[in-house]
């Protein structure tokens, strides 16, 4: 399992996920937990939703991570368009 975290608390996030699975006795023994080194870090405390949605879309479409601080405004506009029209834009 790979933790995709654009914030600054990478070790804390992985520790929380690990503790959750341990407390539930649900973690399959064949799984390992690791951080994604490819995800861009956000530069503020309010773009986390844009990063999360874009990173999820990139994983769902099997694309490389494409969110970065300089693309957040354009990604937010595209997300707004998709919500208002009810249609997804093509992914490349």
UniProtKB/TrEMBL annotation:
Ranges of residues in domain Ubiquitin-like protease family profile: 16-83
Pfam families (alphabetical): Peptidase_C48 (PF02902)
Name of the featured protein: Ubiquitin-like protease family profile domain-containing protein
Entry annotated with the keyword Signal: no
Organism this protein belongs to: Dreissena polymorpha
Gene3D superfamilies given in the database record: Adenoviral Proteinase, Chain A
Keywords: Hydrolase, Protease
Gene Ontology BP term (one): proteolysis
